[in-house]
Design a protein that fits this description.
The structure is a single chain. With about 220 residues, the protein is α+β, with helices and mostly antiparallel strands. The protein has two domains: about 80 residues, Glutaredoxin (3-Layer(aba) Sandwich); about 110 residues, Up-down Bundle (Glutathione S-transferase Yfyf (Class Pi), Chain A, domain 2), CATH 1.20.1050. The chain is built from eight helices and four strands. The chain has a four-stranded mixed beta sheet, covered by helices on one side. Helix 1 runs parallel beside helix 3, helix 4 packs parallel to helix 6 and helix 5 crosses helix 7. The longest helix is centred in the middle third of the chain and has 29 residues. It is globular, with a radius of gyration of 18 Å. The model has no long low-confidence stretch (mean pLDDT about 95). The structure holds glutathione. The site of glutathione has 13 residues, from helix 1 and helix 3.
């Protein structure tokens, strides 16, 4: 076994890389870095510190290559292990897919941030009321994104062509919205059906189940 992935139990980005490796049918050793709600990613894993100047997971080691960043890992995996392809062949479709994947990381996930306080116990009832006020405003933005995704999916099975990295990134951002008790997907039937379809894929389900199992331990406030 030559591939090692440094991952985090409730890291959207690292879990994306786990799904990609699973979809490619690649065996790998997973090393979970420490994470708690109180201390975050401290103390840092020394190998992650050495590999990534941003000191973040995921970090992938494949033979003599050590690399970081989930999106760059997607690119590397498709070039090195091309079957099954997780980007469309057509350059324009691929460009659309890459934009959707960027949208998931840089627009959709940040829209989830205003409800992240829900994963930790409130400091006071007053503080929580303020956080919830901002959270409710954030949820309206999330609903707009749900609608855009609903329109995008239409009658297609996946976001762009066959199942792709765009689906992985979007699914992971949405699992965060769901675990943080953000707006349900029911009001957006095509998006809800897509979410169920992606979540039923064995490689996705394995990682999603493991993430939620970790979350139950790390973020009990979400499951009371
Ligand atoms: N753009 C990076 C983001 C990676 C990232 O933010 N990782 C988080 C976990 S989800 C992390 O390791 N945070 C620790 C820190 O920033 O100190 C990617 O796509 O891999």
């Amino acid at each position: 076994m030559t591939i090692t992935l440094y991952s985090g139990p409730i890291s959207m980005f690292a879990r994306k890389a786990e799904i990609a490796l699973g979809e490619k049918g690649l065996e790998f050793e997973r090393i979970m870095v420490p994470f708690t709600q109180a201390a975050g990613y401290s103390p840092k894993d020394p190998n992650v510190l050495a590999a990534n100047p941003k000191a973040q997971v995921p970090v992938l080691v494949d033979g003599d290559l050590t690399m970081f960043d989930s999106t760059l890992i997607f690119e590397y995996l498709d070039e090195t292990y091309p079957v099954p392809a997780l980007w469309p062949k057509d350059p324009k479709e691929r460009a659309r897919g890459r934009m959707l994947e960027l949208f998931a990381d840089e627009i959709l996930l940040p829209a989830v941030r205003p409800i992240m306080h829900r994963s930790v116990p409130p400091t006071s009832a007053e503080a929580r009321a303020k956080e919830e006020e901002a959270g409710k405003r954030g949820e309206l933005v999330l609903l707009e994104h749900y609608q855009a995704l609903e329109n995008r999916i239409g009658d297609s099975e996946y976001l762009v062509g066959d199942f792709s990295y765009a689906d992985i990134g979007t699914f992971m951002a949405l699992i965060f919205a769901q675990r943080l008790k953000g707006p349900r997907l029911d009001g957006h039937p095509k998006l809800a059906a897509w979410y169920a379809r992606v979540g039923a894929r064995p490689a996705v389900k394995k990682v999603a189940d493991d993430l939620i199992a970790s979350d139950r331990v790390l973020s009990p406030t979400l499951y009371q």
